Amino acid sequence: MEVFGIVRSLMAFRLTGGTKDYIVVGSDSGRIVILEYHPSKNQFEKVHQETFGKSGCRRIVPGQFLAVDPKGRAVMIGAIEKQKLVYILNRDAAARLTISSPLEAHKANTLVYHVVGVDVGFENPMFACLEMDYEEADNDPTGEAAANTQQTLTFYELDLGLNHVVRKYSEALEEHGNFLITVPGGSDGPSGVLICSENYITYKNFGDQPDIRCPIPRRRVSPGDLVDPTVLSCDCSASEEPTCCHSGKTAAGFMLIM
Questions:
Q1: Rounded to whole angstroms, what are the CA distances from 185 to 137, 156, 256?
Q2: How far is residue 147's CA from residue 202's CA, in Å, rounded to a whole number?
Q3: Cα 224 to chain center, whole Å?
Q4: Quick one: which of 98, 60, 66, 93 has its CA closest to 79?
């Protein structure tokens, strides 16, 4: 499928109870596009195309970040700065995919580093964002506020009953994170996210809960040097969810972080 533009983000999702995956695409077109693969034609076909902004790789026009609710009920598309939009995904009477009008989750004077969908089972969909508020730093000519500005982990909840997005919880981070990983929730795990930062990976969950933190393993560079002094960081991951074996026991899942 030819694309007249720049694909900035790409994610697969599956509606609850469905057997088919769809692809949601964020690009520089100022649109969110959902594609469906047809095996008989051996090609992708456009299911939905919704316009929300101007074309071009602009810092306040969504398209750089995509996050999907693990149950396939909603998708968040975000910009590098300020703007985030949430779309509700559903089916119509003919079992065809439908997409709602965008719900705003904007926050002024805020830079976004990463966005993921949080696995909360069948509760209201929730998204976690790595953000930084630069308002004070922007108004301080001395640079002291910029040096002391902390990154925050913010949880946004989509209230399906009231049909709007609320900022549910925000917590300042000690380290500067660059990547978020969804932890399985519901009956498969404790939910929450893993925050990848320099030399460390930290587990955090919604609310005031104790963190679980571990250093990223290092290799010995020589018998005399204990560890490699290079700063380590992770920027991609893959996971395998727990599965039920023939014996009835549940096999543990795992995450591969690189």
A1: 37, 16, 17
A2: 22
A3: 41
A4: 60
DSSP assignment string, 146-194: HHHPPPEEEEEEEETTTTEEEEEEEEE-SS-EEEEEEPP-TTSS---EE
Closest CA to 235 of 204, 256, 212: 256
Considering the segment(s) 7-257 as one domain, its CATH architecture is 7 Propeller (2.130)
Q: Report how far residue 104's alpha carbon sits from residue 158's, in angstroms, rounded to the nearest whole number.
A: 10
Number of helices (H), then strands (E), belonging to the chain: the values are 2, 21
Name the residue among 182, 201, 181, 114 with its Cα closest to residue 152.
114
Distance from C-alpha of 111 to C-alpha of 181, rounded to nearest angstrom: 19
Pure H helices in 44-200: 135-138, 144-148
Tens digit of pLDDT for each residue in 224-246? 665 666 777 787 888 777 665 55
Q: Check residue 95 and give left, alpha or beta (phi > 0: left; psi -120 to 50: alpha).
A: left
Rounded to two decimals, what is the model's pTM? 0.89
Hey, which residues does 35 pair with through a beta bridge?
23, 46
